[in-house]
User: Fold this.
Amino acid sequence: MCLALALFAAAVPLVAAALPSGDPVRGERIYGRCIACHAIDRDRTGPRHAGLFGRRAGSVPGFPYSPAMRKAGEKGLVWDEATLDKFLQNPTKFVPGTRMGYAGVPDPQDRADLLAYLRQATPE
Assistant:
């Protein structure tokens, strides 16, 4: 278990280096897929995205996270470009048991654009 976690932690920076450059204008359009459940400034079915980067998973006060997401945060999952990229690619694979039933964003450029928008739109 510890070896698997160490290998994952070692691989995360490599994923970040491989991300394509994102276009925040295009990312804002892609964010339209998210607004059924999320908003930048308030909780909805999903938690708010304000302050997303650098936030521990499952930690928005008062939001009813799944036990799986709370546990992921307790084990050290923090949202940054690399972890969000992997989560957005396939949420239920990255955090098994998450309540986020969205199938994911399979296209790497779409994810990069979405992350560029989120980085710009979400104050720390």
